[in-house]
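User: Okay, second chain of the day. Same drill as before: sequence in, structure tokens out.
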Amino acid sequence: MAPLVSPSISNMYYPELAHTAFVYPAIDNHAHPLLTDENRNAFPLEGITSEASGDALTSDSRYSLASYRATLQLSKLFGLKNCEPTWNALRNKRDDTDYLDLCNTCFKPSGIQCILLDDGLGGVADLAESIKWHDQLTSSTCKRIVRIEFEAEDIFRTMLGGDAPNIPTSIVSVVSILEEFTDRFKASILAHARDDRVAGFKSVVCYRTGLHIAPLATYEETQRAVMDLLLQYKTSDSLRLEQKVLNDYLVRLVLQIAGEYHKPVQFHTGAGDNDIRLTKASPAHLQSIIEAYPNTPIVLLHAGYPYTREAGYLASVYKNVYVDFGLVFPLVSGDGQRTVIRQLLELAPTNKILWSTDGHWWPETYYLASVQARQALYEVLSDSVRREGLTEQQAVEIIRNALFHNANRLYNLGLKPNMNLL
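Assistant: Same drill. Structure tokens below.
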């Protein structure tokens, strides 16, 4: 992998640190499934480097520094020569490549040993490969992250039979529905918590109603939220959990069960697509719920970008808080990536930071996230060594922990680093 990412390791100023950064195996603690071969072109390829949609994606995103960098790196990976790197050239090359060969081309130089996959894609799951399918791309068995809102919506649909026009909305019916739903939801979460293939849970409440999750609510408030959900389903024939009281209720149920079984709960924090309200996405909003469930490991995804310092602060003052620094690779420029790592390390203990790709749909997202993160880690930590903020050996341990050991310990994976990956 090193020739694609950096100069020769032996010629770098801190060779042991460079070798660790570019060669040490990694656990990807948060990602999503790849598209199937049949659906490999279902979404615009520009989505590799942007969370935008519509014209903002297909017309504007290609002019970002992140996009320019990705096209250059992928052109080198695919062996494109004598042409200016463009998305069209990349599309043509990947269309001419066998899909499994394309996946292996992206994964082999990534050094990813194990992936924790959130497959709660809701409405598009049929476009993607199964978690088990991904095992052929890694040397260790991939694990599942259960998205709780998807589970809850599926249970409601099953209970209501999809017959929206006949949904009862009397208070007696609502009480009965809430009780039955609670029993079914708790049983489902308990079953997942006991499943060895499930590494943890994830909430996208950030997208639905924001991260200011109330630690308490009355039963009457929860009943009214269910009534609102039923009326929404009846009038629109669409079931989407976007009632704050009900979303908060789900999160509290999962945090309680996950804490009892020592399963981490991941939260999307910070930037996402335009479905999110950015002012409600700062991880600082989670402070009350963090305090309410001190025995439940909580993972703040995506470094809370652009609220990275808030995420680092929470990890520094709460034992049960960890910070993932995915998504910014490859969505943010190289300078921005280095800034994210520096801001995170201003306060966050280095035994509580976790790397991920947030890879999804395209195998290229896994490759880019890996090579860019490794380069950024080396550049930031070698600078700290140069300025005598760290010894080289301390920096080496930080990278080993960030890429592999922190996640291995937190998710109780029991893995040993496979040093033959790269």
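Strands lie at 26-31, 112-118, 143-147, 198-203, 265-268, 298-301, 321-324, 353-354.

User: Thanks, on to the next one.
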